[in-house]
Amino acid sequence: MKRLRALLVAICAGTMLFIMVDAKAARPSLILTAEGVEAIRKSRQARQTYPLFEAAFEDAKARVERSIAEGVLVPTPVDPGGGYTHERHKENYKVIHDAGILFQLLGDKRYLRHATDMLLAYAEIYEDLPLHPVQKRQSPGKLFWQNLNESVWLVHVVQGFDAIADALSDKDRAIIEDHLLRPVADFLSLQNPETFQKIHNHGTWAAAGVGMTGYALHDPSLVERAVLGLTGDGTSGFLAQLDQLFSPDGYYTEGPYYQRYALMPFVLFAQAIDHNEPERKIFEHRNGVLLKAIDATIQQSYAGKFFPINDAIKEKGLDTQELVYAVAVAFSRTGRNDLLSIADYQGKTVLTGDGLTVARAVSEGAGQSFAFRTMMLRDGPDGDQGALAILRMGDGPLAQTIVAKNTSQGMGHGHFDKLSYILYDNGREILTDYGAARFLNVPSKDGGRYLLENQSWAKQTIAHNTLVVNESSQFGGDWKRAQKYWPTVRYFEAGERLNVVSASLENAYPDTVIERTVVQLDHPAFAAPLLIDVMSASSQEKATFDLPFYFDGQIVDFSGALQANTESRKPLGQAHGYQHLWVEATGQPTNGLLRFSWLNARRFYTLHAVAPEKTKPVFVRTGANDPDFNLRDQQGLILRSNGRKAVRFLSVIEPHGIYNPAAEFTAGSDSQIARIDHVFEAGADLIKIEMKTGEIIRLAISNDPDSEKTHRILSAGHEWAWRGFVTVLEEE
Amino acid sequence: MKRLRALLVAICAGTMLFIMVDAKAARPSLILTAEGVEAIRKSRQARQTYPLFEAAFEDAKARVERSIAEGVLVPTPVDPGGGYTHERHKENYKVIHDAGILFQLLGDKRYLRHATDMLLAYAEIYEDLPLHPVQKRQSPGKLFWQNLNESVWLVHVVQGFDAIADALSDKDRAIIEDHLLRPVADFLSLQNPETFQKIHNHGTWAAAGVGMTGYALHDPSLVERAVLGLTGDGTSGFLAQLDQLFSPDGYYTEGPYYQRYALMPFVLFAQAIDHNEPERKIFEHRNGVLLKAIDATIQQSYAGKFFPINDAIKEKGLDTQELVYAVAVAFSRTGRNDLLSIADYQGKTVLTGDGLTVARAVSEGAGQSFAFRTMMLRDGPDGDQGALAILRMGDGPLAQTIVAKNTSQGMGHGHFDKLSYILYDNGREILTDYGAARFLNVPSKDGGRYLLENQSWAKQTIAHNTLVVNESSQFGGDWKRAQKYWPTVRYFEAGERLNVVSASLENAYPDTVIERTVVQLDHPAFAAPLLIDVMSASSQEKATFDLPFYFDGQIVDFSGALQANTESRKPLGQAHGYQHLWVEATGQPTNGLLRFSWLNARRFYTLHAVAPEKTKPVFVRTGANDPDFNLRDQQGLILRSNGRKAVRFLSVIEPHGIYNPAAEFTAGSDSQIARIDHVFEAGADLIKIEMKTGEIIRLAISNDPDSEKTHRILSAGHEWAWRGFVTVLEEE
User: Where is the signal peptide (chains A, B) (predicted)?
Assistant: First the structure.
């Protein structure tokens, strides 16, 4: 089936690779293949239609018919993201892509004609285009303000071309190849070496565009450039991207928002490679890291939305087009039925053989609920740069989920939020992560770019549920320095009734060590799992320690007296994000237990905190120093301890009750916990939770990963003994 | 079928009424009837099951089985709303109700036994109970803190009794009748004459409970008391409630939130009357006002939620149990198929013959989309106390909807918000009404009662989208005075492309007349209808006029320079709700056009305002002087004009564009309007809207309801002539 025409040998990452380029494979051969076309045609002839596939089919038809009605619109590029020419060129690449595929599937020459006209119109102008007049800081494009968009354009357009190439006249095909596709590929590689050689999603998109063009044009040199980089030695290019950007667990160092985006060129180019050169076994590369990455992307979501860690638009979720491709590919390669529930949620699939397979399986009812699980996703190319811990407890996709961010910085889009966590419960985000300060593609909001407040607020440590020392961000807010350090995961355990992750962080602050242990405990005395959190820090000097909890919902109760700033408000500080927080109210310095309850939609939550002596509770709200109304509204409670060298905060978060105003029904709006005691002795924590019913739950944390050792702690005259990092103590 | 045993003659509201009480009708005969039982049994025997009915059936079974497992729990009443004993007694009335009905439908004696045991347990304690220890300000109950709950309890419990009465031993029946039902009925009427005689939903509930007890106990005197009041002359009682609480259009003076609640005793007691004494033709009373009221309740909703005017919990919507009853009754009496879409939305029905009819019709696919329409609901017993105008434009249930509140005060739960409006668009509330400050049944929020902030903020004029004069509320915030006045609706017109309502208000402020004309215009130049709003006021003295727009969403653009209070915030004022508003930013005094855009979910909105010279824009946010965090977060823009005797504000609200961050697609985020001019001359408004495309739209408002007169206005040398209150002018 595949005929060999060229054989290149190269050394890449210490491995001998045989690069075999079939210069004249049967087209189409990128994502849609000749076999896929046949399967789809047969299925349609047999009138076997499947809703997910039909949805994609109808979308494509509507898009192309609309474009045919409008005529060929290839405007001179002038607008930034969100503007007319930007959106037009985005739409055009989809039109060319879809028209090519529809021509393959239906054989309708109107689609061939339209795709050809579009491509010729671009070929007419492309080479003479100057750089885009509105240039992003780096790496401008010609059709778009940044060449990233141009790579995405090429990845789509070349698929449309691949689908019609054999039906083109030699003249038209030569014009399109020589005056459009090859120039774009050269522009994105030879003329933009910095982007092309970057180990970064921009580089992956460029490699995918260039490499897929190589296959479509039967040009092995373009494929080689894409796979092994400009210098041909594998120090850049697709394989280097695949080796360095994903951890062995398939975690992408920038986090799920960019993982979703980065996944698409990886998946598409890998598909194209596999269709043209299956001998490369690209999907088996690094123990199948690409399929692991697809699974990891889905795992990093709750209620359909991605965990919004690092720079992330919170609306993004599993139904994005990138994941539609990924799920189709993963299902057809693994046959994992639980992927079908994701496809079903997406409501559509892709117009390829894989898409048909998925759509058919969903229609036949083969789907199962996706296997969301408790897991640790190690970060770093070698998996030794911290980890994202996902703790889940309960049944189904909306099981309570804790996301502990013990990863590395994640480059320029990373936030200074090590050891922070997000709590999801009952289908909603309860303790929240702000995500990015950005309104995607809204021109009046700085052209849809990241806003200044993304730097001044969203990235800063105080914007997250983690400890801040002396009102400054981790690593002084310098991401290049932050990039060199990461937390050490001391312990991780996933159990049926108890999950735990513990990590420590050095170097974020001078001479300071921070440790956090997060336990998720399912106990029969409670309707929902408890989150138990021990956050400690020790420093050489006396310091101010701020531990924030950003909650979503309405404050309904607080245990102490509050001094509310009812007549005037001031910001909490001057820099590192503090300037954006209004101080709404301050509590009395506490000794002992502090209790705070809020209502989120239909459930109540109570935070019980045993904080260091004289800790001051401060209620804050975003919005200070925000003259352009760029921030969203977000409330938080900060526990502030002043003038100590070491602190140890115990926080227990208890979901309880039900609030149903529609049915006028409320129950369990009070916490069931009467009292919590916390003893820390000889390195171990003993936590005693006393229920209002009198029942007592004792949790012991040895802070020692050695599972063989026996630990002892003396409390109120009783000696407790146990083994393991954390355990629920039972009375003898 | 119905045998006559007693014949009473009474005079009520000038009409001769024959009150015929059948002292021994075949039980059950209240809501569930013997015929209904037979139909349901037959349907189940034939294995004809319908999801809506089965949902109700399974709910009831689960509830009663749970209660049987728990045993009879009739605690001594101690807790206020939301507390244990309160919720327990609420649950119990549902258990007794459901157990009785299940006994009828299934013949299972376990249900008979449980209902009997429950009733006997209550009979054991009821007479000796003192008034509830936690008494609401007025009208305490014995089982509950207010006797309103006790009426609701009786309405349910007597239905359960009615269903089992004929199966009880004579002894048990006598105990329950003499030591429970009759004492409760007497307590709610004879011993609480003030509530019982009040023309108010509390009175309706009491009348329904007492009257239904009369039918169940075959006691005509109780029925008479309920129908004609304590004095038997019709000055109070059910008929008086029906005559005075609803307007001829079926509008309930307190607004939809209480209409929904009040509807239930009306519907239930009317059903019971009709089942026992069809001769009364109660559903035909006042031209079928009860069925009109059911329709009006549904009309007063958007996206399933009721318009939150006056004291209202915003979560309440069409799926509340009250509406489930109402829809079942209305469908079985009218056969209106569009009611079935509401039943379908509710997802359940009631366990009666009517319920079966609805469930069957839904299952057979007979449903049609509910006929939401543009309409005016006149307020007041005679329909002459203002009106609620509902303007709708577009297709389907999510068509753009404007709710203009030109009604009377609506008694103690009314807000001082005459001439305000709410704008719904694209499925969401865009210009909002705060609703009530209350967390229903949350003990830590003042026991779930209306909070102090309901008075200090939610009711005040400044909390609404209407004009405030001199920083004080309409009628000085005195509802009893406000109760005497209402707006005059000058004009109302519903058209295919243009809806309009215009009203004027006197007496709200000394020597001040306020007028507002709201136009909803569907014009081909725009993707969605425009809201065009002319608000004017004239006063004897120079005054400060504040016109607020409370918007939901993120500010994305503003036409002028803003002075943001970035480092410190102060409240806008000291009283009448102003003390709760933080001043976020102030704009420069404007001359000419002011433009403000915000983003709500997936659509952009731009307010174009042509305000009086030197009007100052002020951005505000709730939260000042709110020490207990009782307020929700709400942003607004206030247009403030100072030092004039007369003002005229033109506001045009333009929905535009689409924002889709999941698909990374944004379009039309800029307004399409380049400029707006407003000429007011000889009593007429000429509004010129100039599009960015150059197209011009001219709207003329004559402010004259006389449709025969020709109006003329001179503008820029051109004389325009037209007929009618409002018109789109076409160039000759």
Answer: 1-25
